[in-house]
Predict the 3D structure of the following.
Amino acid sequence: MRDVRDIRPGLRFPVHAVELDFARSGGPGGQNVNKVETKVIARLPLGALGLHPGDLDRVRAKLASRLDAAGRLVVTCQESRQRERNVEAAFERMRELLDWALRVPRPRRATKPTRSSKVRRVESKKRRSAVKAARRAPRGE
């Protein structure tokens, strides 16, 4: 197992900072499932990443539902029946989450609807109005 994982070029997280806990997995597996703890619960303190304060705030905001009370990123994995595969999968999932959370969103540029789109919208509203008007009973009766 490597001691450092790349999140993206120039940014890494130290594996030794990740706290690993193991539990019994659910699902199929027969008697083995009741004896072996293959489920992995990985916790990474965000302070160990060495991020800039702005990046750290972005990660905390985007991954708020995955943080525990101590502010650690929590990832669980029980895909495999082998503990080592689950550890690797948890690290990969952690890397993907951090990479996603660190992406800076492109600023939205305000745009105006085109003249033809306005005309189309008004025409469709008129057609819909005519359809509904045709369903109503005549006024005089």
Notes: Residues 4-102 form a domain with the Double Stranded RNA Binding Domain fold (CATH 3.30.160.20). The mean pLDDT is 87. Helices lie at 53-62, 83-102, 115-135. The two ends are 84 Å apart (CA to CA).
